[in-house]
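Researcher: Let's run the pair from yesterday's discussion. Sequence first, then tokens, for each.
Model: Starting with the first of the pair.
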Amino acid sequence: MTAKDLAHELSREWRVWFLITALIGAGLAIGPHYAEEEVRIGPNQVENQTTIATNINMGLDLQGGARVMVEPNLTGIPVDEHGDTVDNIITTLNTRVEAFGLQDVTIRPVSSLTSNQRRIQVEMAGASTEELRNLVESQGRFEAAFSIQASDGDTLTFEDSVFNVEETENGLSINGTAFDTGETITLQTDSHNITLRYHNQTEAFHALRAVGYTGQDVSNVDINPTQSGVQCSSPNSCQFQFQVQLDQRAAERFTAVAQNFEGPSGGNLQGTQLVLTLDGQEMNRLSVSTGFRDSVISTPSITGGGESRAQATEEMDNLKSILQSGALPTEIDIVSTNSVSATLGQEFVRVAFIAIVLAIIGVAFTVFIRYQTPKIALPITITGLSEVLLLVAVFSNTSLTIPIVLALLIPTGIGLYVGFKQAEFTVLMLPVGTLFLLGIFEFAPSLDLAGIAGIIAAVGTGINDQIIITDERKEERVKSIKKRIKRAFFIIFTSAASTIGAMLPLMSIGAGAVAGFAVTTIIGVLIGVAVTRPAYAKILETLDV
């Protein structure tokens, strides 16, 4: 059979067109392109060099970064609610990450089979341990409270309700309710419940704080970007500002508290400041306009600062992300932190894939010695390399643009045409398989050591299955080729099912490398069963091996 005849015969097989579709999609997803990269050539010299970059999403092991293990404080929470609490923490942290605009962050639960201990592992590629700690360890309890200086015999007025202040041996009493430093009481008015906190005591007065609003009262963040930004009055002093939207009830409560203070119209309230705190740590003190006393304003501004523009910007983004995500349902303790060096980096990826390719070629050479024909060794090499390309595409961080979708639809349409022309209605699996590939390409986990190990395991399983198919075709005891192939695929599907079954527990209870290895192996097995094995069998059938 000439090369032209072989190409014609293969073009009549929809399974081959499915493989072509997958390879085109993988190549577009990986997207090799030229990029400028800074390379240090001396102690204080950096040079831009043109390199070939891809859309492959490098993970922590290859790009470097930080990893922390945190443990929620589940004391007092019923055991049957532990799972929901951990899920809420992960959801909050994910929202916080998205609001902060970060990428390459992985947050996953870690559980134990032998105890009720539950932990959460957070990884961030390209970050320091300090940056990651700042992101996750904050519980996110934000509070804006009016400062009040009270003495024995004073009165506090909220709306039409009057509250008498009396000193006690250990602190203060408000309308007969005693409380001490750090404690809070709730003052009830006709319309609102005002939270009052005893902050501390000086020789001259008792420092109280009446809560105006908390992070839970914020319904929207940075509602007016034109009023948001960082201004620097000097190189070492920068201030940020952004507006938030309060719930109506919280805005009314804020006004009710503001009415307790005097001040000229158009000026600031006298005898108070608005103290902004995050997890009990004071962030800033603001003067409050009398406009908040005279009318309900639901869009206050939040300000803060830093010693540089970069620090102020980071503080602003961090606070925005916390207000958008809300407070964590419980406190968390950081169990361990690790800084991961990227010493392997791109060089490791290059060496690893060279090793994979050489392994496939070595297997092909062994197969050639065993079967004494390139008609078997060459298809095994091609399908093995195809599996590597398809699995690498799984780790490509790309969006399905119109050109990519069209590039997949064209060979899919050709495959449907040749399948229906031969009245082979199993071709209906081709569009289903194409959608499966699109879903996998959108999965986009990060490529790390576990992913590379999973690729090697999946490709090794694939070559083993191809040898099974080859031996079944050459088996003399069974005369029908179709029966031989059916028997081979029965073995392959059974092997795939057992492999997936073994990996599922690792996905559910594992963390880090274990879970990543399991996910990659399962995807590799599915790609092999759906794409490369059927195409390999058809290639052998066409070659009449």
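Model: Moving on to the second of the pair.
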Amino acid sequence: MTAKEARVKIESLRIEILEHDRRYHVLAAPIISDREYDRLIEELRDLEAKFPDLITPESPTQRVGGEPTKLFPPAVHHVPMLSLANTYNTEEVEDFARRIRDLLGHDPEQGYICELKFDGVAMSLLYQNGKLVRGATRGDGTTGDDVTANVRTIRSIPLSLQSTSKLSTESFEVRGEVFMDLEGFRRLNQEREEQGEPPFANPRNSTAGSLKTLDPREVAKRPLRFSAYQLRFDDEKIENLSELDTHSKRLELLKEFGFPVSKETRVVKDTAGIMQFAMNWQDERDTLSFEIDGAVIKVNSLPEQNEVGFVAKSPRWAIAYKFESKQAKTRLNGITLQVGRMGTITPVAELEPVQLTGITIRRATLHNADEIERKDIRIGDLVVIERGGEVIPKVVGVDISQRPKNARPFAFSSTCPECNSPLVRPPGEVNWYCENPECPAQVIGRLTHFASRGAMDIVGLGGQSVVQFVEAGLLRTIADIYDLKDHRDELLALSRMGEKKVDNLLKGIEDSKKQSTARFLYALGIRHVGTSVAKLLIDEFGSIDAVANATETAIDDIPGIGPEIASSIVAYFEQRKNKDLLERLRNAGLPFTGEKKRVELAPSEFFAGKTFVLTGTLSAMTRDEAKEKIELRGGKVTGSVSKKTDYVVAGVEAGSKLEKAEQLGVKVLNEEEFLSELQ
């Protein structure tokens, strides 16, 4: 094939693939199978490999993602991405409509437009000459993160527009929600569990975490989707825009441009129509393939939106109607104790099976012994469970009026359910622990954590394989993983372990030695040392050995690391068995030396030296993002509220931590107050 012939064929394939993308992601009406679609992609990829000069950034093959980035540059929003004021009942919706009427002097001429409130992550997309040039998160509303490389991997987001509209070549911004549908979320968590990784808590958290992943190739593997809900042109005086004077008309243009737009929108005249829409979807939300947590109501007319205007943090012309939490009642048949990799004992409710949000719930977390006592939860009770997107739902209360006479309080065991070792509860903590390092549950937990994707990312060494190898006597410590190459015949003798699978496992183990020193430090499983703390330590000290030899004071002096973490790190490296373990890992070729890089933190009088606790769900960012922002400004984040806590940042559905803060008189910041201090 000549270059000219290849150009024609490549362009033809791209047009065909883009049309199938539109039919699948926008129209939800595919006309070919997934296998046929994959064949088209493969044919295009082969041609581009033979004629690399013909590859363009907008080609469908480029959605697989490029090389990992080291950081996300800031992206300033030309128009701030404001949050919406929340309403929870008919009276508050009527107050909203009354304010609109007072400001306009009449009811909105084009009525209100009602939309579903996707439970995802807000995204801003900039287009120039019909091509995507930037994707940015909401951030603090003024400045977000430039995540263009990750956004380009989302197949429902057009890289270039195929529309015949003259407006498609203008410069404009599309805002919408990146989300994960429930089926994709369940598949993702199933894969994570098979690989020994902890499941994501809910679709929103997995979406936010995916968008913050530094390697676009990993993002491309995540089932992310996009739904557009706003279109704004850089020059709002462009000829013909007078025909686009309502929000509903702009949604139609977004569809014409090739963007997926929710079908579940409705223009209504008054609050009765608003409440009918909201109540209908509160009852029917479980019929959707994705999570929603409310409805969004906007004045439909754009000129009237401009007339109504904004307050400091939100538009006056729009509100969010928040749905009630999803709950169900069922019988508590028993309580079992689970042992985590760090020895943490977690009580789990064993429930009479009940349907909630489309799935059968059999187990729910009870958090800790104090929570069981505070809620007076007894075996045999009719308990109230709440899901709200959680993988393992939580017990939020008890129907005392239905308590049977034989209901009995739960007696927390004094010994480990796995190894019968005595349980201990350190002063000031709510959790009980098994301190036996040879506890089978902990051994399996440590090995699984070490091999997980966020740590050493050893392909083929998931939870099931770890259990199998432990039972076969091949693994007891993480150092044993690097001796498996000497036990190939024994591996082949195990069930479901063919030659290809064993060879892939051994290759994955060898490849893991190329991971960064910070990931290796995190993989060791030191209590309180997560990925961000591990990176801070390597940035400060430069090597595992330097961290091991550091004093508690030197570690505590690092901004973002407190005395509890410092004490845990020193205690880990003082233990003889851990020193022996590290020596074996050194001899196996693990990465002990990294790059010493002290990060200069921005000073902040408000945050410096203060202790914060985060509770509830924040709309503008994840908890990890909020924690990072606090630490970068010199503050510390802890997991529990005490008299030493300076501030509790309370998001939506804040729980017992908020109650304790109020009891102790600790200052509570709502999300709006917290965001204002970050600016």
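Researcher: Give me one sentence on the second I can quote.
Model: The two ends are 58 Å apart (CA to CA).
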